[in-house]
Fold DNA-binding transcriptional regulator, LysR family.
Amino acid sequence: MLDPRKLHLLRELARRGTIAAVAEAVTFTPSAVSQQLSALEREAGVPLLERTGRTVALTPAGHVLVEHAQAVLEQLERASAALAAARGGPSGPLRIGAFPTATRVLLPPALAELAGAHPGLTPMVSEIDPADVSAALRAGELDVALVHEYDFVPPVTDTSIETEPLFSEPMYLTDRPSVAAARDDAWITNKPGTLCHTMAIRACQAAGFEPLVRHHIDDFDTVLAFTAAGQGVALVPRLAATNPPPGVKLTRLPLSRRTLAAFRRGNGRHPAIEAAIAAFRVTISRLPL
């Protein structure tokens, strides 16, 4: 019988590429991960890994098993959701991930809504960049997360993760009538590696130039404060632009940011996740979008 916990490690190895990366993700030692994968090979009865020095690659049989592992783990998520529904109303811990703007604007009223409707739930929030959400969901560090997608940035695809669209909001440029008009300005963007940073760079490239980035700041309130101080121009979403500082002009652009709820595939019918998404939607209906 194949152990689902070992299948999870094999799937993570297929995605992350090294045993060290898998160990870091699941808070095991590399030695423990290696031992578990070796035990999985014995259970499977065929070689799953090719070891060359310090590198490890999946064999053809390993790739086949990863495909089946995803189906097995998805079915286990469905079973867990069904059992939770059978126990009654949602209760217990609910680990929520969210990007900074959502943490500040959307989550406080959503958590109040959730507490009123389901007092047995204990939400625990972690601020996280959407680029890191898939790994955190797969590792079980989060149950549900708010993520976003931008124009110019293709969505990250992960077959083990499902998403449910929540809302779309326009993007604004500070103090210039168009992105092209900001060609010679200093720019304020989010930190490299974030979706927000990639979106800003590609928006400028689509306008025919590489931006001169002076500041890297993730919090949009701080970005707007820097803009008010004459430190550069920036792209900001509607949720971050509802109360700009005095003197900051905002131009609506034909660009958008879309927010989605993300969760492990097969787990969308879990009552706690359904309750969270319902609370998100109630809050969103009251936002100035």
Summary: The beta strands are 49-52, 55-58, 92-98, 121-127, 144-150, 161-174, 186-189, 212-216, 235-237, 250-264. Residues 90-168+259-284 form a domain with the D-Maltodextrin-Binding Protein; domain 2 fold (CATH 3.40.190.10). The chain has three domains: 4-84, 90-168+259-284, 169-256.
